[in-house]
Specification:
Helix content of chain B: over 70%
CATH topology of the largest domain in chain A: D-Maltodextrin-Binding Protein, domain 2
Oligomer: heterodimer
CATH superfamily of one domain in chain B: MetI-like
Largest sheet of chain A: 9 strands, mixed
CATH architecture of the largest domain in chain A: 3-Layer(aba) Sandwich
Strand content of chain B: under 5%
Number of domains of chain A: 2
Distance between the termini of chain B: 51 Å
Strand content of chain A: 5-15%
Keywords (chain B): Cell membrane, Membrane, Transmembrane, Transmembrane helix, Transport
Organism (chain B): Microbispora corallina
Number of strands of chain A: 9
Order of helices and strands of chain A: HEHEHEHHHHEHHEEHHHEHEEHHHHHH
Distance between the termini of chain A: 46 Å
Number of strands of chain B: 2
Number of helices of chain B: 14
Largest sheet of chain B: 2 strands, antiparallel
Subcellular location (chain B): Cell membrane
CATH superfamily of the largest domain in chain A: Periplasmic binding protein-like II
Radius of gyration of chain B: 27 Å
Membrane topology (chain B): Multi-pass membrane protein
InterPro entries (chain B): ABC_transporter_permease, MetI-like, MetI-like_sf
CATH class of the largest domain in chain A: Alpha Beta
Shape of chain B: flat
Structural class of chain B: mainly alpha
Radius of gyration of chain A: 24 Å
Shape of chain A: globular
Chain lengths: 441, 322
């Protein structure tokens, strides 16, 4: 029996060695045949799934086929990040993959899940600093390694229902927002909310701290990657403001109201239904309102800012869709042609931006006369161009950091945590401990 | 010297016999080989890998030896200890309640004369509902904003608690979900109850024992092995409790998979965070697979303890039977 166990152990160790050997990182290389025009079919995974998005995307890929007739793109829709990771892990990734979230960029670059694109950029004489707005560079690279490119961007602002606003102008400061919220909120005799001026909890669809932190100019991390949340007084300003307004509503009443909402991405969104007068949302809501609630008379404005930061009014949160070449892609040269087309071709970007109402991600596309602009969409173009607009820089624990702060916010606004300083200090501790675990920081 | 030589001679085995024994060993190995391969590939290799990775910083792609870092992090990871407490709460509260409820329902159904088949079907059907669908249904029913339960309670002036949004109620919500799908236990208990010899009850009735004494002194001792089986397998299943907690938290929190919408595991306030859920998050969401391996080893050790208890109890029953 002992001998059997020894044999099994040896076999197990041999398998273990074989498996871990596959985890070595390999540097990307550009084949000398990059200019070859031999017919090639490349796999492209993306996350688009709505009919209007798919049509717009198919039209864009048709434009690519016209420019690069020897490259056939086999596109797969509705793919999530998990599937991309598994395919790379399994050694059978697509040639090009697109992700809707920038949260994993640091991980993608550090672990080499996506190839470093700097050699490709150099070979194609593309200077990212001259092509993309500065803020985009922060979320498409990690420690000097650019492993993804931006393909369209998102900017966040304030939507307001003109009828529910009753002639009031959109608020510019947090105090104005609080006052207007109280003025516009309608409650029944039992105190149940029928219409909310604004839903202040961090649990409301797009009220996550990553978006609302911009209103007070709050910092997430220090240059060494450690948490700046506990030491930056702006988080305290934001959370105190939120708590005061939540208490005015009553947390239980507000939660009951929030939980009566339909799906954020459906026609039942409470803004469409006239249940909230003001809401934080991304520029894409313009297209959704046009298709799901064309009768809603609405306007857009930048998010309000802290009372003592009036000069920052006009700024917002910026993020975007990213695209890259996964490690192990079978046709990296052809893949690069597609990535380059989708991220740098002005015509392609403007066409896509017009179709799905996203912000184009290059400076020439932003200035293109073909870009459709109306007053509501222009607000987001202005937010995107505002020098005070920020993003969340790529961080190895981006998701964990957001999750930890949001957890603290929920405890605070619900009244289950009483000491805000202690709560934020605990957030710092958790984030810094996690950094040591994952990055040795 | 002579005696040593004699001793050596005494232990010498004829070569023909040795060859036969070797052949017999090889044959035994051959017969065992499917199990050996399965054991090595599906148990031993993953276990050895888990131990190996637990000493590495492993993001699913790159490895870096870090000694005991992952183990040290476990000791101060508050979420892991919260997850342990939650899992133990479910073990201590949900498992006994499920066993009691399953036994009670089985007892009732074996006693009723008419419509037993209908009731058996009604109580068994929920255990066939997929976990995700069942949990979604429960969260919808108990939604404080639009749920039918709130509508009914509200009509008589009662405010329903925020079952899956209030940390004081969330684990009770999961327990109710567990009781609703008790059909699997009910079937096992029904089989055990129907197996109790009727003459024991008849003899006890002649001696004047009432229903309660019959239950305590006849039913319980006879079905004790089945009760023990249900309890220990229930404990092991609860140590792996994942899907219902994950789905309930995600749906109740309203988090979507969009950029910026972060799902807080264990919502609300980590009150539904179970140990396997935290393990999954560490490995596949935070890419801390080395640390996830430490959590997996802890779970393995605890499950082994319960398995040993199960084996020991069964051995005890077998000896009693003998």
């Amino acid at each position: 029996m002992k001998r059997l166990l020894a044999i099994s152990a040896a076999a197990g160790l041999a398998l273990l060695t074989a498996c871990t050997a596959g985890t070595e990182n390999s540097a990307p290389s550009i084949a000398p045949s990059a200019t070859s025009h031999d017919p090639v079919t490349i796999e492209f995974w993306h996350g688009f799934s709505a009919d209007n998005e798919l049509k717009a995307f198919d039209d864009t890929l048709a434009g690519f086929k016209q420019k690069f007739p020897w490259i056939t793109v086999k596109a797969t829709k509705a793919v999530q990040d998990d599937q991309i990771l598994q395919s790379v892990r399994g050694g059978n990734p697509p040639d090009v993959a697109l992700s809707f979230t920038t949260d994993s960029v640091a991980q993608f670059c550090k672990a080499g899940i996506f190839q470093d694109l700097n050699p490709y950029l150099k070979a194609s004489n593309i200077d990212p600093a001259a092509l993309f707005p500065k803020v985009i560079a922060e979320y498409t690279q990690y420690q000097g390694k650019r492993c993804v490119m931006p393909m369209l961007a998102d900017a966040y602002g304030l939507y307001y229902n003109k009828k529910l606003m009753k002639g009031n102008e959109p608020p510019k400061t947090l105090s104005e927002l609080a006052d207007l919220t109280k003025k516009l909120t309608v409650k029944d005799a039992q105190g149940n909310i029928k219409v909310a001026g604004f839903v202040p909890t961090s649990q409301m669809y797009e009220n996550a701290p990553i978006h609302t932190g911009v209103m007070v100019g709050a910092k997430w991390t220090n240059p060494d990657g450690t948490s700046a949340i506990g030491s930056d007084p702006q988080w305290k300003t934001l959370m105190t403001w939120q708590k005061d307004l939540v208490d005015w509503f009553g947390y239980d009443k507000l939660e009951k109201f929030r939980k009566s909402f339909g799906d954020e991405w459906s026609a039942d969104n409470p803004f469409n239904k006239g249940k909230v007068a003001m809401a934080i949302d991304g520029e894409w809501r313009n297209a959704m309102l046009a298709s799901d609630a064309p009768d809603v008379d609405y306007g857009t404005a930048p998010m309000p800012v802290a009372d003592d930061q009036a000069q920052r009014y006009g700024a917002g949160f910026i993020t975007g869709t990213i695209i890259g070449i996964p490690r192990g892609a079978k046709h990296p040269e052809a893949a690069w042609e597609l990535v380059k087309y989708l991220t740098t071709d002005t015509g392609a970007l403007v066409g896509l931006a017009n179709a799905i109402r996203n912000v184009p991600s290059t400076l020439p596309a932003l200035q293109s006369p073909d870009l459709k602009k109306d007053a509501n969409f222009q607000t987001f173009l202005d937010i995107f161009a505002n020098p005070n607009s920020t993003t969340q820089p790529a961080h190895i624990n981006a998701v964990f950091n957001q999750q930890t702060l949001q957890e603290a916010q929920i405890q605070w606004e619900s009244g289950r945590a009483k000491d805000l300083d202690a709560l934020l200090a605990d957030v710092d501790k958790k984030i810094n401990d996690k950094l040591k675990l994952t990055a040795g920081g | 010297m002579a005696s040593t030589a004699l001793g050596r001679r005494r232990h010498e085995v004829p070569s023909a016999l040795r060859g036969g024994r070797r052949r017999a060993n090889l044959r035994a190995l051959l017969y065992l080989s499917p199990w050996l391969v399965g054991f090595s590939v599906f148990f031993l290799y993953p276990l050895l890998s888990t131990v190996y990775f637990s000493f590495q910083r492993y993001d699913l792609f790159t490895l870096e030896p870090v000694g005991l870092l992952n183990y040290r992090y476990f000791l101060r990871d508050e979420a892991a200890w919260t997850a342990i407490r939650n899992t133990l709460w479910l073990v201590v509260v949900m498992v006994p309640l499920r066993v009691l409820f399953g036994l009670g329902v089985a007892q009732l159904i074996t006693k009723i004369k008419a419509g037993a088949g209908v009731f058996r079907t009604i109580f068994y059907l929920p255990s066939l509902v997929p976990l995700v669908a069942g949990t979604l249904g429960f969260v919808y029913l108990l939604n404080p904003g639009t749920g039918p339960v709130q509508a009914i309670l509200g009509a008589v002036g009662i405010d329903s608690p925020d079952w899956f949004g209030d940390p004081a109620w969330s684990k009770w919500g999961l327990t109710m979900l567990g009781l609703w799908s008790v059909g699997d236990l009910m079937v096992i208990f029904m089989a055990a109850l129907l197996d109790v010899p009727k003459q024991l009850y008849e003899a006890a009735a002649l001696d004047g024992a009432n229903a309660w004494r019959q239950f305590v002194h006849i039913t319980l001792p006879v079905i004790r092995p089945v009760l023990m089986f249900a309890t220990v397998t229930g404990v092991i299943q609860t140590l792996q409790y994942f899907t219902q907690a994950m789905v309930a938290a995600r749906v109740a929190s309203g988090a979507t998979d969009s950029a910026g919408s972060v799902f807080v595991p264990g919502y609300p306030d980590q009150s539904t965070l179970t140990f396997p859920e935290w393990l999954f998050h560490q490995g596949f969401r935070d890419f801390a697979m080395g640390y996830a391996c430490v959590l997996a080893l802890v779970l393995f050790a605890v499950s082994m303890v319960f398995t040993l208890i199960l084996l020991r109890q069964f051995r005890g029953f077998a000896e009693e039977e003998a």
